[in-house]
Amino acid sequence: MAIPQRDDLIEEIKRTDLLLEWAVQHGEEEEAGRFREELRKLTEM
After folding, report:
1. Cα-based distances in Å from 38 to 1, 10, 43, 44
2. What are all long-range contacts of 10-16, with beta carbons under 8 Å and residues at least 24 apart?
3. Which of 32, 38, 43, 44 pairs as cysteine with 23 (C-beta 3.0–4.6 A)?
4. Global confidence as pTM
5. Is 35 exposed, middle or buried (0-12, 13-18, 19+ CB in 10 A)?
């Protein structure tokens, strides 16, 4: 049985990773740094 809270965390990590990828591809270094920090926080939970 799936755990909704864990599933929500996984979806948030996926979403943030995609946004990070987009920022890197478009040269948005400041945004990429923000998304990297957000990913770090999410994966430390």
Report:
1. 28, 13, 9, 10
2. 12/42, 13/39, 13/42, 13/43, 16/42
3. 32
4. 0.84
5. buried
